[in-house]
Amino acid sequence: MAGSRWRKLAALALLSLLAACVRVIPETGGPTRPTPAPTPAPTPVAESAVALGVEVGPPVSSLELRQEDAAAALLSFHESCPKLTVRTDASGLTSPGDWRAACAAFATWPYAKAAQFFATYFETLRVGDGKAFATGYYEPEIAGSRAHLPGFDVPVYGLPDDLVRAAPGDAAPLANGTMPLGRYDETGKFVPYYDRTEIENGALAGRGLEIAWAADPVEFFFLQVQGSGMLRAPDGQIMRIGYAGQNGQTYTGIGGVMRERGLIGEGPGQYSGSMQGIMQYLREHPDEGRALMRENRSWVFFRELTTDGPLGALEVPVRAESSVAADPRFVPLGAPVWLELDRREANGLWIAQDTGGAIKGANRFDTFWGAGETARRVAGGMSGRGRALILVPKGTATRLGLK
User: Where are the beta strands (DSSP E) in 250-363?
Assistant: First the structure.
């Protein structure tokens, strides 16, 4: 019965993606995948939603929740439930047990009444001022091969075994209390791990860490930014890869650097600040472009995935137009999120299933658009502002003393 319900909901979600009236169209113990932000979010003044301040929002029934949108979100919510009902909520808003009633109800809930499901089991909270900023990400497909073929010379590295966290006393803890990532050199001293320039210059060569090879360094750079993707070999075979870890070096969004230097903008003759505009500049100025990419010292390591979609921070597949990345300090991972933005295609109900290196602060989101050229175009140009509401199990506001 569960399999049948799953197929029905999946089919309904697929129909919603094809309908013209619907939106057209990756925390597992280590650092999360970085995501670019055209406009950086303000540094949060608090370290959790509760510390920042929350207030009761409008009833879920008052939101203009489309049935098709709700059905796709319900499927993603269900996929999150095994993690949601056991993980610690860093936002301070909920506890694992709060979600169990809604998760259990999925088994018998009529899929044709998905919108009513959220109105029945959830209430809304506004975190801080509720003013939202959303970008987009997607699953790239680039030319790549398991074997080192002619023209495929960009190594795709798996996680190296000498990338470790410092033992207490060997380095200063990070601001969040965890020990930094790095390596122990030949003298036994803890040092930062190799940065992008060092890795590109061969610091990891000859160690057997290559799980695949990419053809285009610019495409691979942006696949690292997205955190997951697909490699298409010359014979048409597809290899899906996902985030395995990061070198511990600081992530720098090159779009911001380029804007500061006047390399991109809105004026005549300037390159646009979209991902497409940035890539155009990098290709037309290869030497300057290589230097720019190396200003992002962060390097992402990958693993092969056998799932039917890229994995988010919850270790469940993220779904096109249903999954959103958020800061887990302000949004419980697995929770529904309502976005009402000045970009209509991003309006509606999403499920927070992922995180991102640049997705920091309250009401900062990164919407996932799937794979393919349409997803690439929409995600690359996504920059929406408006308001956000977090959907939490009914009774949460009362427990937090808000009612």
Answer: 300-304, 323-325, 336-341, 348-354
Helices (H), 60-143: 67-84, 100-105, 114-121
Task: Say how many CA atoms lie within 13 Å of 273 toward its Cβ.
Answer: 19
- In the chain, CATH 2.40.240.50 covers 151-304
Q: If phi over 0 gives left and psi between -120 and 50 gives alpha, with beta otherwise, what is residue 130?
A: left
CB 189 within 8 A of CB 243: no
Buried b (16+ CB within 10 A) or exposed e, 312-347: bbbebbbbbbbbbbbbbbbbbbbbbbbbbbebebbb
263-296 pLDDT per residue, tens: 988 777 778 877 788 999 999 999 999 999 999 9
Query: Does the structural domain 2-137+309-399 have CATH classification 2.40.40.10?
Result: yes
CB 11 within 8 A of CB 3: no
Q: Where are the beta strands (DSSP E) in 140-247?
A: 141-145, 154-157, 164-165, 181-184, 190-191, 210-214, 228-232, 238-246
Kindly report the pTM of this predicted structure.
0.72
Q: Residue 310 corresponds to which tokens in the numbers above?
A: 């890229």
In the chain, which residues have pLDDT < 50? 1-44
**CA–CA distance, 274 with 294 (Å, rounded to integer):** 19
pLDDT score, position 45 = 55
Q: 2 φ, ψ to 5°?
A: -60, -40
Q: Name residue 31's amino acid.
A: P
Q: Where in the chain is the domain with CATH 2.40.40.10?
A: 2-137+309-399
* Residue 73: Cβ-neighbour burial (10 angstroms; 0-12, 13-18, 19+): buried
Q: Please give the structure tokens belonging to residue 91.
A: 């936002």
The CATH fold assigned to 151-304 is: Ribosomal Protein L25; Chain P (2.40.240)
In angstroms, the Cα distances linking 175 to 157, 171, 247, 253, 295 are 28, 12, 17, 21, 23
CB 156 within 8 A of CB 230: no
CA dihedral defined by 303, 309, 314, 315, rounded to 10 degrees? Answer: -40
